[in-house]
Amino acid sequence: MPLGSKAQAKVQRLRDQMAQMQASTVEQIAQLKAEAASRKAEVQRNMKNSSYNLKQR
């Protein structure tokens, strides 16, 4: 394989790796956003319940 072809193949492998890493990062960000939204909703429910319990006293 000529040197230029080897370099092109290596560049393509690196581009593929970068694309995979980017896709993985995007997926991780989406998961973290979903977890954050879930936790936020849980905290809001807990605050609402605490407020309700204080009013009942």
TrEMBL record:
Biased composition regions of type Polar residues, renumbered to the chain: 46-57
Organism: Gossypium stocksii
Protein name: Uncharacterized protein
Disordered: annotated segments: 37-57
Entry superkingdom: Eukaryota
